[in-house]
Design goal:
The complex is a heterodimer of chains A (269) and B (138). With 269 residues, chain A is of the alpha+beta class. Chain A is 14% helix and 24% strand. Chain A starts with a helix and ends in a 30-residue tail after the last strand. Chain B has a five-stranded mixed barrel with strand order 2-3-4-6-5. Strand 2 of chain A pairs antiparallel with strand 7 of chain B.
């Protein structure tokens, strides 16, 4: 009886250990750590505002300090791993007039103009990434406030009962060296681009992030089968590392609306 | 009282080649031509009375002597705080001039109000800060 008991206990201990060793490929039983590139760090603030520089003159000495706007602009040049992209989304014929109407009156209608949350993907790449074993946290700085997104990476599905939001419900996974964020369940009052790019509640956004040397690459694809003829993959953006700490964004109060005398775009993002 | 004592203002309107530079230089949260008269660059000298370090534009207020010696209350917006941070400037760089005489150059609202877009400011210590699009250190 004692031999049988030890045999059962032995199997109970050994079988999982062997299975673990097989899963990790470690003959010694030492668990191998699955490694991914570490995207953690602070990334250059992606401001896209002209003018491009400040000219400072002190006692006759002039210095010029330029604004790094690189992280706001899609990079049309070849970036390793980037997917084919197009500069604009393709709307179904039934919605093209609406897009034009919204674009023509963007300064009156765009929520972002009036301090609204830009949502995903319009907010662009994160300012800071904290990559943990079971989740990755994305931090942003934005005129509308400073959102964060917690991206589970433990294989859980999207939340079934989450409320629609500006930044959606996201889950993440790794495809090789690329961190893939799948976001959905958005409110439908955001624009995903300045030119009247409205979307339906069914919009889904896939963001891909990877390292290119010391830089971060961010590329997003918007899927909305209700209003788009095909998924829109945006040009990738190359973001440099930064040492500038994140700073709380001051409150946003836009009072220029009544002063606008025409429908010119504001050229924000 | 100190502000009033220090107050002395002039408004000048310039036209010419410099306008082209200003038209390019002021392009921020919205298209400048939707609000401002890009054909007139103005210069206002007066007392700095307020600095709001807010989005989407920082806002400064001035009191300047206008036509007939009356006091005009000017408000200028400019680029957002994050833009100024990216060029190494903070609110304190402007706040040190509070209550003192500064000169602001920019463009004026088309509606004729005392509202403008600040493109350049000259502080009491002689320092000038200008938003430019070209790397022209002249």
């Amino acid at each position: 009886m004692r031999k049988v008991l030890f045999g059962v206990l032995g199997c109970a201990i050994l079988v999982p250990a062997i299975a673990l060793a097989q899963q990790t490929g470690s003959a010694s039983g030492k668990r191998a750590v699955q490694t991914h590139p570490d995207l953690s760090g602070i990334w250059t603030y992606a401001i896209d505002r002209a003018p491009s520089a400040l000219k400072k003159e002190v006692n006759g000495t002039v210095t010029i300090r330029t604004v790094d706007q690189s992280a706001r602009h899609g990079d049309a040049t070849s970036i390793r791993g980037a997917r084919p992209s197009t500069p604009k989304p393709s709307y179904k014929p039934d919605y093209q007039a609406k897009v034009k109407q919204m674009s023509d009156h963007e300064s009156k209608l765009d929520p972002v103009f009036y301090c609204g949350k830009p949502g995903v993907p319009r907010i662009g790449p994160p300012r800071k990434i904290v990559q943990l074993p079971s989740e990755t946290i994305l931090f942003y700085e934005d005129i509308s406030g400073d959102p964060y997104r917690i991206i589970p990476t433990d294989g859980r599905p999207h939340r079934a009962n989450a409320n629609p939001s500006h930044y959606g419900d996201s889950v993440g996974k790794w495809e090789g060296d690329v961190f893939v964020v799948d976001a959905r369940n958005f409110v439908d009052d955001t624009w995903f681009g300045e030119d009247g790019y409205f979307h339906s509640p069914d919009m889904r956004v896939i963001e891909r992030l990877w390292k290119e040397g010391d830089n971060l690459v961010w590329q997003a694809t918007v899927e909305d089968p209700i209003v788009l003829t095909a998924p829109w993959t945006m040009p990738p953006r190359l973001i440099k590392p930064s040492t500038e700490l994140l700073e709380e964004s001051p409150k946003c109060v836009e009072t220029d609306g009544p002063k606008l005398l025409n429908d010119d775009h504001h050229g924000q993002r | 009282m100190r502000a009033l004592t220090a107050l002395r203002g002039t408004i000048t309107v310039a036209a010419g080649a410099v306008l082209l530079l200003s038209a390019v230089a002021v392009w921020a949260h919205h298209s400048p031509s939707a609000i401002f008269d890009m054909a007139k660059r103005i210069s206002v000298t007066g007392t700095l009375t307020k600095i709001d370090w807010i989005n989407p534009h920082i806002v400064i207020a001035m009191e300047a002597k206008g036509d007939g010696g009356k006091i005009d209350h000017w408000t200028f917006e400019s680029n957002p705080p994050s833009w100024y941070r990216s060029v190494g400037l903070a609110r304190a760089d402007f706040a040190k001039a509070m209550g003192q005489t500064v000169t602001v150059e920019g463009v004026r609202a088309k509606d004729g109000t005392f509202y403008g877009y600040m493109q350049k400011i000259k502080l009491p210590d002689g320092t000038s800060l200008e938003l430019v699009n070209t790397v022209d250190p002249k």
